[in-house]
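Why do we care about 3D structure at all? Because function follows from shape, and shape follows, mostly, from sequence. That is the central idea of this module. The next example makes it concrete: a single protein chain, its amino acid sequence, and then its structure expressed as tokens.
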Amino acid sequence: MMGRQARHQEPLFYAFRLEDRVPAGHLLRKIDAVLDLGDLRQQLAPFYSDTGRPSIDPELMIRMLIVGYCHGIRSERRLCEEVSLNLAYRWFCRLGLEDETPDHSTFSKNRHGRFRESDVFRHVFELVVRRCMAAGLVGSEGFAIDASVVEADASRFSRIENAEAGWSHPKRQTRAVREYLAALDTDASPNNPEREPSALSPSDPCSAWTTKGRLRVQFAYGLNYLIDNEHAIIVDVEATPARISKEVAATKAMIARASERLGLHPKHLVGDKAYGTGRLLGWLVQRGIDPHITVWDKSDRDDGTLARSDFLYLADEDVYVCPQGKRLRTTGRIHDGKTLLYRASKYDCDTCPLKQKCCPTTPQRKIPRDLHQKARDYAQSLAGTPGFEKSQRERKKVEMLFAHVKRQLGFERLRLRGLSGARDEFLLAAIAQNLRRLAKLTTLATPFCPT
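And the structure:
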């Protein structure tokens, strides 16, 4: 027979524990078992006043943000509502049934104020990486590097030229604009020093105008990951404008920071062809890191004329020798900050029977040589080896992380503006991914035993 819910008077007291309501296999229970924020208050102590009313517990805020980025809830207003309603979220955030959740405006003020000033997200990220290292999930044998484009919180239909910016206008003096202007004359300038940006966003000028990403054109940032190949743990993350030159520069910063702050020194680094520049290859080889990277080489010719590979380089004499035995020498002048030019004698070229096949449109043959050509040659010698081929297969792991953060965590577009806003969001996304990975792979989590 059809049942009917009994409607009795509600009892005055309930025997209820949040601990008993969170399933043993719940993601947040697994993450809680491997997460330790014990030193967080010490890290943030200098950014709080000794007087005044007590503020929101910083550990509560960090736990709420971890909940949000693990479950794709990036709106602060919605996050406060979800934590208030969801029992598992309350349990993870150490909130009882009667505890009030923070107001979203107070939450935002703390997050974008003292949290950003203290660089606490970097601190928490490195804390999680160290926990992964302690669990044996970071081998430090080989790292992989890659970048993915994430749309900025800036309309692609509103763009201006640099000369038309008028940044001094009071309506444009936002935090993102002030950050952009302060960085222009520093080594951390968001613009490419060799080229003026084709377009700027009036609301987020640090972002770059790009044709990459999910839209045909957009303003975007580059999400740069440095991962350990063994278990795809993210060992460093960096935010850059979506420009290849910035992504290559970020690689050096991430490798140096991982070495200095975490003691991680990879034996080899794998990346796609965009990272095969002479400067980066030279920097890697100088530090004893084998570059498992396809070299960016444009020396081959498709017009039937002789390529650079047809000339023999004599290192002891620092000259190139042409197929006819003539020497090409350099004056030592550096062009474009990275290239030496080796020139043949015009007298030799005028009487050479191979002139039409060598330099038909110029009076003499010139051969450019990268200042880091030794490193380029070394990288090319590694191509095709078993270790190189294995690394290229493992490079897919970093691409899978990008797919996960965009499709599963809903990270297609930023919510915060400016380079610091992008950095905060990228660090939180990496924290969430590492925690999920750690919770899945570690054996440190203890089984749930309800009492």
